[in-house]
UniProtKB/TrEMBL annotation, chain A:
Protein name: Oxidoreductase, molybdopterin-binding subunit
Keyword Oxidoreductase: yes
Domain FAD-binding PCMH-type: 1-222
Molecular function terms, GO-annotated: FAD binding; oxidoreductase activity
SUPFAM superfamilies in alphabetical order: CO dehydrogenase flavoprotein C-terminal domain-like, FAD-binding/transporter-associated domain-like
Lineage: Bacteria, Bacillati, Actinomycetota, Actinomycetes, Kitasatosporales
Entry-linked Pfam families: CO_deh_flav_C (PF03450), FAD_binding_5 (PF00941)
UniProtKB/TrEMBL annotation, chain B:
SUPFAM superfamilies recorded: CO dehydrogenase molybdoprotein N-domain-like, Molybdenum cofactor-binding domain
Organism: Streptomyces himastatinicus ATCC 53653
Entries under InterPro entries matching the protein: Ald_Oxase/Xan_DH_a/b (IPR000674), Ald_Oxase/Xan_DH_a/b_sf (IPR036856), Ald_Oxase/xanthine_DH-like (IPR016208), AldOxase/xan_DH_MoCoBD1 (IPR008274), AldOxase/xan_DH_MoCoBD2 (IPR046867), AldOxase/xan_DH_Mopterin-bd_sf (IPR037165)
Key words, A-Z: Molybdenum, Oxidoreductase
Pfam families given in the database record: Ald_Xan_dh_C, MoCoBD_1, MoCoBD_2
Protein name: Putative oxidoreductase, large subunit
Domain annotation Aldehyde oxidase/xanthine dehydrogenase a/b hammerhead: ranges: 28-139
TrEMBL record, chain C:
Alphabetized PANTHER family for the sequence: OXIDOREDUCTASE WITH IRON-SULFUR SUBUNIT, OXIDOREDUCTASE, IRON-SULPHUR BINDING SUBUNIT-RELATED-RELATED
Upper classification of the organism: Bacteria, Bacillati, Actinomycetota, Actinomycetes, Kitasatosporales
UniProt KW keywords: 2Fe-2S, Iron, Iron-sulfur, Metal-binding, Oxidoreductase
Pfam families: Fer2, Fer2_2
Region feature Disordered, mapped onto this chain: 179-199
Source organism of the structure: Streptomyces himastatinicus ATCC 53653
PROSITE patterns the record matches: 2FE2S_FER_1, 2FE2S_FER_2
GO molecular function terms attached to this record: 2 iron, 2 sulfur cluster binding; metal ion binding; oxidoreductase activity, acting on the aldehyde or oxo group of donors
Name of the protein in its database record: Putative xanthine dehydrogenase YagT iron-sulfur-binding subunit
Record domain 2Fe-2S ferredoxin-type: where: 10-86
Pathway: Alkaloid degradation; nicotine degradation
């Protein structure tokens, strides 16, 4: 780890100004990902701008029935908040499925959105990786990839996004707010993460130097009936091999509204729009759920050792929607 | 004053629960492990390991790094002190991985190529990361498979045993099982990384270390650095887990080299990632098991062929095929351990070496045989109880494996089990139960001990034992108390200091048995001296023991611990998730000295078996020859949420030839546990999983059809 | 234009176990290394140094955190409690006592982290925080008892390679029971481990 400067900032404009002045600077939130990457040499910032004391640690209900969540709210506080648990229980479950109690106490919402892939080639500076060193290659394609992407990947990178929180946020149409030297801006979640293409090192649409200040969750009554389920290689404290956020509103046996998003299958939390379209207005039956999953997964491109994820996600869609529809009937 | 022993009626301590004598230190954080003893003027060493898997070091560009802040020296093959790599230690010649910086050859990825020493750990780390090492890379081969042309039978005559005509008996058998099982590369992953601080103190080399045998490490260091054994002292008071990995490793040698060059104390602590390449691991295995039985399930043919890998610089063989040599007999009986040398780090002993992977294959195959014969798996084993060692012909000291099964079956509720697979469903979960046998050799090795009657009426025991979490310190305290017939509170137990003399290491489930013998013997001698009467002088009265002669006189027998493992699992075949719901292990493992810590140790072994069955797998990239994700996020060991209630019990089974009756319990707990779980997964789903770990993707792809057996 | 280089060292004051320690730190120094290498508080253990094992768990502002990913300089102004600070003088914390009595450890290296984590788990549950093991996370579902399954999930960030998990869960259950009013217990006096299956 190289030597670096450290500044603790107390106002957003000060933070943005400091970062703008130093291209080798990084914002430090909980540090649960950045400090680890600094230890492995993947990140080598010259200066850290500690944003933990910024006044962005509140969760507020918006007048329209949504929520505004500050960027420095910790994962723990997000998952424990009564409004989150009541209006978006699937989001609380997603956050609780991630990492450990210790890490959730440290990690922040803003940092969670910007966390990097856990691909074992990305985190090993002795190996090539197009995300870390553009143009160096993607050894995962020929190598170890049993937990790599099946959707939206490219020949340049097959890494997955590790967030659980993000999967629920994309299902609930979160909007990311940020601040730059030129003033504030916002990005809908659908536009926040960039397609992989031939630029896997460019991960988000945030302007250079932007500081995430928070996210808003628009009102979504369907989200009150939501869940998150995560499959991983041990029962807890592990990244997903496949996860799903779902919300369902069934009226008279017909799908009135549905939200579905997948984790651990793509370079970003994956909103299953094709499945949602296939389901909306149709019957809430097992056959329809399976057909919707197939509609989404038709675009899957698998490698020799990750093809099981297609089956896994299909089964998770059916199981999740079946569970939600049965509960709705009860 | 006069010290007395055995005068008051003292309740025997052995056999009763005793909390750990160092427990308070451990729960308050006061217990200091190797990297935690303060030293004035301490410097910090950081190893640099190779990024290539095979080749030569062309250059170590140390000059820019030597100019970095705080850097004191950079040691590498061009400037390191010369050491002797040809000596013979406890386990033979040393693995060249530990004779640091003597060659420009790189035989595997992660090979130590340099040590950077600096004033602070932060400076050492950055300088080590900045050090440029140029290599001439050569093609490497890390592809382990049953078909590897380099696979061979080692010269060691014990590699193979054979009696009868296996092919003929298989051809004549009413029922045959012929299956291949594999286990992956597995790591010790103990919580405390290897750490050592070395310094020269008045002409003596002192090393504060974390190891499984301080005299062992002292002896190796003395020989490697051509020193008198008396001028080397190694201490290892508290050890944060060992499991076979904590012998001589590069960190001690690096620290000794650096302190010799710098004339100040130097500490070297391995990083978690370095541990994956230079502290040993369990080789992956491919095992073919062939069993033939008559219509009643009696074994007529028994074949177990195991292949493991080793490095190109040192041979270690994972002896998986040894398992059946003491366990099951047949008219035709063949076992062989083969090995292939690849461009990988040297594997080593990992908890139940041989028996852990061997029992997975064999106890799974027996379950398959029971299914084919239409027999209960316990009945099959009962039908195949040998009278004597199948290979040796020697009698068993004791063998209560069927008693373990019967007691286990009663407590587990086995009698109610429907043997048919795939029938029990609870919500999304399919449920199943499985069982397997366990065994591990019981041996003792010569040790010395000293017991001192102090003037204040207490007793001090000195023995170069190691407590790596086994509870040895507490067990030996109880054993000494009983031997002296005093309360345990009057015993000061001092261990893990090579100045206390030669003693067995904490390994092979032999530590506590070997040390207890020496302590008992010295205590007996002391009591005889004290019986003569008289005052205790200020320096106390000391009696010493050496058990070499007594152990050498032991009759040749098949001496083993045994056990029966039971597991219940739940499997979601839609997601591939497997959860273990409960486990039970019943053991016949000699006299249990301390039921409290023994239960913990046996349970810990069973947790290892669970972890082996479902989680553990180090992945090596063939193109680079190095690991992918060598850390505790990439290498999963069981976490709290994976571990269900685990019950442990034992049947009375004292070893008649041991002064305390001990057999050893460090390893038998893992043996058979993975097979019991795999057998339970079959019972739940109807699918045989012959490849560990039983990962979700494998379960998912196999489904529930019997034809879905995971064979490739 | 390149910014002026900022200093890479700072003099900081850390508030640890009720005592203030002023020391210059390299900004690279983690709280874990500051404790172990600079302040001789070696009860906090380094197992992986990457946030993957939990051995370095301490309490920061009353909440459990892994000190290996916490930079020391960023911990200034926070209230830090380590394993050395959880007992009341000679009287062990109830969680420490339960680990000692029930043999909730073997080698002892993960133990300080397990104990600090367990102290926080009991408080988090008392504060009504749900976990991934909580069937219904909605506040209207009320606080669910601290079952063995809940303890296992909440403690999962603390690995124990010796495999002492079963006794650790028993110890946490016993300490949690002792910390609660008699009516609010989570089961019988044997702790919750025998109560139910894991899934």
């Amino acid at each position: 780890m190289r030597e670096f400067g450290y500044e603790r900032v107390h106002d957003v404009s000060g933070a943005v100004a400091l970062l703008g002045a130093d291209p080798d600077a990084r914002y430090l939130g909980g540090g649960t990902n950045l400090v680890d990457l600094m230890k492995t040499g993947v990140e080598r910032p010259a200066r850290l701008i500690d944003v933990r004391d910024l006044p962005l640690d509140q969760i507020e209900a918006t007048p329209d029935g949504g929520l505004r969540i500050g960027a420095t709210v910790t994962n723990s506080d997000l998952a424990a908040h009564p409004d989150v648990r009541s209006r978006y229980p699937g989001l609380a479950q997603a956050v609780l499925a991630g990492a450990s109690g210790q890490l959730r106490n440290m990690a922040t919402v803003g940092g969670n959105l910007l966390q990097r892939t856990r691909c074992g080639y990305f985190t090993d500076t002795a190996k090539p990786c197009n995300k870390r060193v553009p143009g160096s290659g993607c050894p995962a394609i020929e190598g170890e990839h049993h937990n790599h992407a099946i959707l939206g990947a490219s020949e340049h990178c097959v890494a997955t996004h590790p967030s659980d929180m993000g999967v629920a946020l994309t299902a609930f149409d979160a909007v990311v707010h940020y601040e730059t030297a030129d003033g504030p801006g916002e990005l809908p979640f659908a536009e926040f993460y960039l397609p992989v293409g031939d630029t896997p090192h460019l991960e988000t649409a945030l302007p250079p130097g932007a500081l995430i200040t928070g996210i808003t969750l628009p009102p979504a009554p369907v989200a009150a009936h939501s869940r998150y389920r995560k499959v991983r290689e041990r029962a807890s404290y592990a990244f997903a091999i496949g996860s799903i956020a779902g919300a369902l509103d069934v009226r008279d046996g017909v799908v009135h509204e549905v939200r579905l998003a997948f984790g651990a299958v793509a370079s970003r939390p994956w909103r299953a729009h094709a499945a949602e379209r296939a389901l909306t207005g149709g019957p809430a039956t097992g056959e329809a759920f399976a057909a919707a999953a197939d509609a989404e997964l038709a675009a899957a491109e698998t490698l020799p050792h990750n093809g099981y994820k297609v089956t896994l996600m299909r089964n998770l869609v059916v199981a999740m929607l079946t569970e939600l529809s049965e509960e709705a009937v009860r | 004053m006069t010290t007395t022993t055995g005068t008051a009626a003292v309740t025997p301590s052995v056999g009763t629960a005793h909390t750990r004598v160092e427990g308070r230190e451990k729960v308050t954080g006061a217990a200091r492990y190797a990297g935690e003893i303060p030293f004035a003027d301490l410097a910090h060493g950081w190893l640099v390991v190779s990024t290539i898997a095979r080749g030569r070091i062309r250059a170590v560009e140390s000059a820019p790094v030597e100019a970095m802040p705080g850097v004191l020296t950079v040691l590498h093959h061009g400037n390191a002190p010369q050491v002797d790599g040809e000596y013979v230690g406890l386990l033979g010649k040393p693995d060249p991985t530990v004779t640091l910086f003597q060659t420009d050859r790189v035989p595997f990825a992660g090979w130590p190529v340099a040590l950077v020493v600096a004033e602070t750990p932060e400076q050492a780390r950055e300088a080590a990361e900045a050090l440029v090492v140029r290599y001439d890379e050569e093609p490497h081969d890390v592809a382990f498979s049953a078909a590897h042309p380099g696979a061979r039978k080692p010269e060691d005559p014990s590699a193979e045993t054979e009696k009868g005509d296996l092919a003929a008996e298989l051809a004549a058998a009413a029922t045959v099982v012929d299956a291949e099982y594999t286990t992956p590369e597995e790591h010790h992953a103990m919580m405390e990384p290897h750490a050592a601080t070395a310094r020269w103190d008045g002409g003596r080399l002192e090393v504060v270390d974390s190891n499984q045998g301080s005299m062992w490490v002292a002896d190796e260091l003395a020989k490697m650095f051509s020193l008198d054994l008396g001028s080397v002292r190694v201490l290892s008071e508290h050890v944060g887990g060992g499991f076979g990995s904590k012998g001589l490793r590069p960190h001690q040698v690096a620290a000794v080299m650096a302190t010799t060059v710098l004339h100040r104390p130097v500490r070297v602590v391995l990083t978690r990632r370095q541990m994956f390449s230079i502290t040993g691991y369990r080789s992956p295995t491919v095992q073919r098991v062939r069993l033939g039985a008559d219509a009643e399930g009696r074994l007529s043919a028994f074949g177990h062929e195991a292949l493991s890998l080793t490095s190109t610089v040192h041979q270690f063989i994972e002896r998986s095929a040894d398992y059946g040599r003491a366990m099951y007999d047949a008219d035709a009986h063949h076992t062989v351990n083969r090995v292939v040398a690849l461009d990988v780090p040297t594997p080593t002993f990992v908890r139940a070496p041989g028996e852990a992977p061997g029992s997975f294959a064999l106890e799974s195959a027996l379950d398959e045989l029971a299914e084919k014969c239409g027999l209960d798996p316990i009945a099959l084993r009962a039908r195949n109880e040998p009278e004597a060692g199948p290979v040796s012909g020697l009698p068993y000291s004791t063998r209560r494996v069927i008693d373990c099964f019967e007691e286990g079956a009663r407590r587990f509720g086995w009698a109610d089990r429907d043997p048919r697979p795939g029938l029990r469903r609870e919500g999304r979960w399919l449920l199943g139960t499985g069982t397997a046998a366990a065994t591990f050799p019981s041996n003792a090795m010569p040790s010395t001990a000293a017991v001192t009657a102090e003037a204040d009426g207490t007793f001090t025991v000195r023995i170069t034992a190691a407590d790596i979490g086994t509870g040895a310190r507490t067990a030996l305290t109880q054993i000494a108390a009983d031997a002296l017939e005093v309360e345990p509170s009057r015993i000061h137990m001092r261990i893990a200091d090579s100045d206390f003399g030669q003693a067995m290491i904490a390994g092979g489930s032999m530590g506590t048995r070997s040390w207890a013998w020496a302590v008992t013997s010295a205590a007996k001698e002391l009591r005889e001296q004290l019986a003569l009467g008289g005052a205790i002088p200020e320096q106390g009265i000391t009696a010493r023991s050496n058990t070499a002669e007594a152990i050498g006189a032991l009759a040749q027998k098949e001496r083993h611990s045994f056990g029966a493992q039971f597991a219940e699992v739940a499997v979601d075949t839609a997601t591939g998730e497997v959860r273990v719901r409960r486990m039970l292990g019943i053991f016949a493992a000699g006299r249990i000295v301390n039921p409290l810590t023994a239960r913990s140790q046996l349970r810990g072994g069973m947790v290892w078996g669970l972890s082996m069955a479902l989680h553990e797998e180090a992945i090596r990239d063939r193109a680079f020859g190095s690991h992918v994700g060598p850390d505790l996020a990439g290498y999963h060991v069981a976490a709290h949420a994976d571990v269900p209630p685990i019950e442990v019990g034992w049947v009375d089974d004292p070893d008649p030839d041991d002064p305390v009756g001990i057999k050893g319990i460090g390893e038998v707990g893992i043996v058979g546990a993975a097979a019991a779980i795999a057998n339970a997964v079959w019972h739940a789903t109807g699918v045989r999983h012959r490849h560990l770990p039983i990962r979700p993707d494998r379960v998912l792809l196999a489904g529930t059809a019997p034809g879905g057996d995971v064979d490739a | 234009m390149a910014p002026a280089p900022s200093p890479t060292y700072s003099a900081i004051t850390l508030n640890i176990n009720g005592e203030k320690h002023t020391l210059p730190v390299d900004h690279r120094t983690t709280l874990l290394d500051a404790l172990r290498e600079r302040l001789d508080l070696t009860g906090t253990k380094k197992g992986c140094d990457q946030g993957q094992c939990g051995a370095c768990t301490v309490l920061i502002d009353g909440r459990r955190a892994v000190s290996c990913l916490q930079l020391a300089v960023a911990a200034e102004g926070r209230v830090i409690t380590t394993i050395e600070g959880v007992a009341e003088g000679e009287d062990l914390h109830p969680v420490q006592q339960a680990f000692l009595d029930l043999d909730g450890y073997q080698c002892g290296y993960c133990t300080p982290g397990q104990i600090c984590s367990a102290i926080a788990v009991i408080e988090e549950h008392a504060a009504g925080w749900p976990s991934a093991a909580t069937q219904d996370v909605r506040p209207e579902a009320g606080v669910q008892p601290l079952t063995a399954e809940e303890i296992r999930e909440r403690m999962s960030g603390n690995l124990c390679r010796c495999g002492a998990y079963v006794s650790i869960v028993e110890a946490v259950a016993q300490a949690a029971e002792a910390a609660q009013p008699p009516s609010g217990g989570s089961g019988d006096g044997n702790g919750a481990t025998e109560a139910e299956a894991a899934v």
